[in-house]
Amino acid sequence: MSPKRINPILFLFLIFLLFSCSSRNEKDGIRIGFSQAMVDDEWRQSMNNAMQLRASLYPNITLDISNANYDVQRQITQLRKFIADSVDIIIVSPIQSKPITPIVEEAMNSGIPVVLVDRKTDNEKYTVYVGADNIEVGRNAAKIIVSNIRDSLRVIEIKGLKGSSPAKERSLGFHQVIDKFGNIEFCGAIEGDWEKESVTESFREMLLRTGPVDYVFAHNDRMAKGAWEVARNLGIENNIKIIGVDGLNGPNGGIQLVKDGMLAATILYPTGGDEAIKTALGLLNNEDVPKNIILNTTVIDRFNAEIMQNQLNKINEHQTLLESQVSAIKRQEQLYYSQSNILKIILGFSLIILSLAIYSIYSKIAIVRKNRQLEITNRKITVQRNQIEKIANEVKESNEAKMNFFTGLSHEFKTPITLIMSSIESLREWDKKKGNKTGFEIELIQNNSNRLLRLINSLLDFRKVEDQKFNVRASKTNIYKFSNNIYKEFKGEAKKRGINFNISSNNEELDLFIDRNLMDKVYFNLLSNAFKFTPDNGRIDIEIHDNFEESSISIHFKDNGIGIPENELKNVFTPFFKGSNNRKNSSGVGLHLSKQFVELHLGKIEVKSHNGTEFIVTLFKGNTHFNEDQIVVDPEIVDSTLINFSEDITMDDTHIKLDTNTGEERYCILLIEDNRDLSFFLKNKLSVEYDIVLSDGTDGTELAFEHVPDVILCDVNLPVKNGFEICEILKNDLRTSHIPVIILTALGNKESFIKGLQSGADLYLTKPFNYSILTQSIKSLLYNREKLRYYYTNNIHKIDQVQSFRNPEQLFVRELNKQIKDNLDNAGFSVENLADALNISRVQLYRKVKAMLGISVSDYISNFRLENAKSMLETTDKSIAEIGYSTGFSSPNYFSTAFKSKYGVTPGAYKKSF
Ligand code: FRU
Questions:
Q1: Contacts of 84 (CB under 8 A, 6+ apart)
Q2: Ligand 1 lined by 161 (C-beta under 6 Å)
Q3: Relative to the CA of 551, which of 138, 150, 614, 778 has its CA 20 to 30 Å away?
């Protein structure tokens, strides 16, 4: 059996069945309804006991005894209820015949058999009568009197309840006999109700009225005893013989009354309780039962009372025994049922436990099987996953390789483009100087170089977006001016093609925080697209809407070009998308990049197409949507892509007043660049102002150490060591650590920039760089050096405490000062000695000190000595000669001359003035 088929509900149902079997189904048994006339007297109680005893022998019999308590109406109600309850059989002892007759008929009519006991109804419409023959009872009483007749006799009758059949029949039988005898004088009858209280008074009156009587026939022993009591009260009890009916055994019973001499005799009147139940069962078992079951009656007098009592005692004993046996059986039965129930419950639970055990074993087996299957599946999945992972890795690696190839290639492209663009710029400047108009070809080359550069940048950007390496650097920007600058870029093309190209804004003063570099690319992409797909003489609009009430603005780029098919609109921003109506060459990354860039601003970009295409860029106002580190006030990186090539340089250079062309000493620049064209180009341009030392990258550091130049320009991709490594070496060497280094690279990402900073580079220019920016940067660095030098020369004695120097410089100056200080009184301490002590050559020391401090080493030593001497003059009482010697001057004269030439006074005069 499948575990699924062992349903727990089914088990509960089984248990229910077990329980339901465990009690006797009373509905299947026999229900007997008995309406007893009353229960106060012992005769009735004896009848009830006999019935209960008999019924208890049959476990399927339910006997319901109702007490009518002398109340006819109540008896009728009880019988109605039995009918309504559809009992199996009704037994009734009618209080009176007449009123009970119709209800007995009703029961018969509804199909319920009726057994009359002791008393009858008025007709024959009953099933069986059980009881003694009451006429015979009356006759027997009369016969006792007749048998004792002498001359004459006087008799009184005490009757039972009028209307009850025994009273009627007993009287009838009695009179049938005594009326035949003329010498029996019937003195009268008293109407009783079967109880002695109903007759005592009237009996006394009758006795007093009639005078002495010989015999009294009372219809039952209770009334007979009452008559005796009356007679005794009158003192005539020995003169009257009283006959009763019932003959009950027991202390108050008729037999005892006979034995005690109160009654002359009693007529045995059996209750019929036992027979009534037997009859009922016989009827229900469809046995052949006679209509009237007449019970035997007999006379009990002083001759047989003893025997009768013994007999009846024996019967009582048997009955008691039987009763105890029956109750023992009942107890056993009860015990049996409860044990049987417990057994069934245990069986039920055992069955459940067994089934659950089977179920759990089966489940266990099923689980083991399932687990095994799962394991196999798992293993398969793992193998497949590994395969997929392997394939994915291979694909990734291959993609990576391709991307690296393209990225590398793109970087490679950048240097020649830089060259092309710089050369064109030179040509244009040349033409400008000569007053010539720039040729059409030159413009063509420049435009196409720009285009090429943008394409390459897009390719690199795509890679950067993929690697999530973009970091927004948002700065406050007037969005109208920003848009207008780009608008101007496209104006020429619009004019050429007759395109109605417009820009408008409802708030030209609006400032937004945008990454100009990224937004510039978004604009270029959207406008390039618009120009690509708008026919000549078409229309293109840039509209800036400041939604004054809202926290955002929207920029609309509308054209009336070929548009985008409706069903393709949702795909326009996916990488490499190409519209089905697009016949032009297209990389398919521009719109994708634009979306990414707008989203980096937490903005959104949407597209609509209806009579052309409309891109809507929505951006937030303010800067709260950016992190602090994304907001830039003054970008540190000079990124040439930020600068419009055709515009003049806007860098504020008014503070840089370096006249690098005059004087004999020119600044020296070491150019480390392996691209010969670029190297040649830069040398040509820069040599106008500077001395140039060229390195192809193989000997960059060596040349730096040798020449100790004023500025180093260094490419990144170099044959032996890369630019970062070279920079790091130079910055960590005493000889060159002070030299500003500009890194020139095509790697425009953040990591490269950080690498550059880590290597100690002072500036970082991405290719293609604008030549003017390069020269401005060089000048700016040299100017800063000048400022430093100025500071040094005026604060020589404080130099080794100045905290603002870079570590190597600080160390160098400290070491320099220490050496000079240690040899302060040593007049023979020369520049050579100092260079040796610092472990560098004399020339290197000279250049380093000159570059850093702007003076020669010997001047520096001399200044140092004089500063110390001056301080001694101020603070000590030493003589001039002593101070001269202790600060390394070979003679007091030499000291005085040197002091005077520096401070304008002799040491003596200085001391005095102090
Ligand atoms: C008991 C009794 C008996 C009598 C019988 C007649 O209630 O009064 O004494 O014989 O009823 O129905």
A1: none
A2: no
A3: 614
Going from the N-terminus, what domains does the chain have, and what CATH number goes with each? 133-270+296-306 (3.40.50.2300), 474-627 (3.30.565.10), 668-792 (3.40.50.2300), 795-838+860-912 (1.10.10.60)
What does the alpha-carbon distance between residue 253 and residue 313 come to, in Å, rounded to a whole number? Answer: 12
44 lines ligand 1 (CB under 6 A): yes
Residue to probe by mutation, ligand 1, list 117, 165, 194, most atoms within 8 Å of CB: 194
CB-facing half-sphere around the CA of 44: CA atoms within 13 A = 22
Any ligand 1 atom below 6 A from CB of 93:
no
Between 159 and 737, where is the model more confident?
A: 159
- What is the Å distance from ligand 1's center to 220 Cα? 6
Say if residues 550 and 543 touch (Cβ distance below 8 Å).
Answer: no
What is the three-state SS of 113-180?
A: CEEEECCCCCCCCCCEEEEECHHHHHHHHHHHHHHCCCCCEEEEEEECCCCCHHHHHHHHHHHHHHCC
- 52-102: pLDDT as tens digits: 989 988 888 999 999 999 999 999 999 999 999 999 999 999 999 999 999
244-248, 505-509, 846-850: range with lowest mean pLDDT: 846-850
Q: Give the position, in ligand 1's atom list, of the atom nearest the Cα of 245.
A: 10
Sheet hosting strand 552-559, strand order edge to edge: 500-505, 539-546, 552-559, 613-620, 604-609
Q: Are 679 and 673 in contact (CB under 8 A)?
A: yes
Query: Can you tell me the distance from the alpha carbon of 270 to that of 597, in angstroms, rounded to the nearest whole number?
Result: 120
User: Range with the lowest mean pLDDT among 199-203, 223-227, 471-475, 790-794?
Assistant: 790-794
Ligand 1 mean position, distance from CA 116 (Å) = 14
Residues 6+ apart with CB under 8 A from 271: 43, 44, 46, 47, 50, 117, 118
Confidence category of residue 747, pLDDT binned at 50, 70, 90: low
Torsion angle, CA of 17/18/20/25, rounded to 10 degrees? 120
**Are the beta carbons of 87 and 64 closer than 8 angstroms?**
yes
Cα separation of 647 and 482, whole Å?
A: 14
Q: 636 pLDDT exceeds 70?
A: no
pTM: 0.43
Q: Does 647 or 679 have the greater pLDDT score? A: 679
